[in-house]
Design goal:
The chain has 254 residues and is of the alpha+beta class. It is built from ten helices and six strands, in the order H-H-H-H-H-E-E-H-H-H-E-E-E-H-E-H. The chain has helices spanning 3-22, 25-28, 39-54, 67-76, 83-103, 127-143, 159-176, 178-182, 217-223, 241-249, and strands spanning 113-115, 121-123, 189-194, 200-203, 211-216, 236-239. Helix 6 crosses helix 7.
């Protein structure tokens, strides 16, 4: 089960609130590392995802299969909100969402598989993992330096936060990247992640392992979401390096 993800999200919520309350008006309006979004828009986006859980009728319905486009609709309606309103909305909705997420760890709800558009279909107990992942990425990569614009001490990237984040990424990867990987995975390839939240995943069918891609979990969060190229990190490919590189190029978890 994913109680750890609920605990991680509680910790991340406190980090978001602490950061948000410290931002100047200029910092709220600074472009984030998410193309087209200010820092304020990123926090509004984080709220909209949780709104879909606790008050779906308040979220504009998208007509596509793209979850990110759905979120953009909600962010657009909040472009002119004051920072105080954005913080209040996040604080209230995140508290309600975490209460809901805690109930998803009990059967029979925990094992019920739900479709999540282009995120794939997942058991409900993994839903809080998606939000722990979302918080981890947006806070550390899109808002805070060195990749984001805001100069504040980075929250911990420890087992508490990374274990549920990586669990979500590896659970979602085969579905989110299915079409792209089908074109390049010609033999089994293992993704070996080291450090806090260490896990592994083998892609491809039967047969001998052809390549292994080894990366730290912290780096994988960045290159596995295509926020930065994997070649910018200490990623090691053993075995068939051409195959391993092609697989790494086609990983894009959202």
């Amino acid at each position: 089960m994913s109680q750890a993800a609920v605990d991680a999200l509680r910790a991340e919520r406190e980090e978001v609130l602490t950061l948000a309350r410290s931002l100047t008006s200029e910092e709220w309006n600074t472009p984030s590392d998410c193309d087209g979004w200010r820092v304020q828009d990123v926090i509004a986006h984080m709220t909209m995802g949780m709104r879909q859980v606790v008050d779906p009728a308040s979220v504009p319905a998208g007509e596509t299969d793209d979850v990110e486009q759905d979120m953009e609709l909600g962010v657009a309606t909040r472009k002119d909100w004051t920072p105080e309103a954005v913080i209040a909305d996040y604080e209230a909705i995140s508290e309600q969402a975490i209460a809901v997420f805690a109930t998803l760890q009990d059967e029979p709800a925990a094992s019920m598989v739900v479709p999540m558009k282009n995120l794939g279909s997942h058991p409900m107990h993994l839903v809080p993992n998606a939000f722990a992942f979302d918080h981890y990425c947006h806070l550390r990569v899109d808002i805070l330096k060195p990749t984001g614009p805001i100069d504040r001490p980075a929250p911990a990237s420890d087992e508490l936060r990374l274990a549920p984040t990586i669990e979500w990424m590896l659970a979602g990867l085969p579905q989110m990247c299915e079409d792209a990987l089908a074109k390049v995975v010609t033999a089994p390839v293992r993704i070996e992640l080291t450090g806090p939240g260490a896990r592994s995943l083998t892609l491809g069918g039967d047969g001998d392992l052809a390549a292994t891609i080894t990366s730290s979990t912290r780096d994988f969060v960045v290159w596995g979401t295509q926020r930065r190229p994997w070649r910018d990190f200490d990623v090691v490919i053993d075995g068939d390096t051409e195959l391993g590189a092609a697989v790494a190029d086609n990983i894009n978890v959202i």
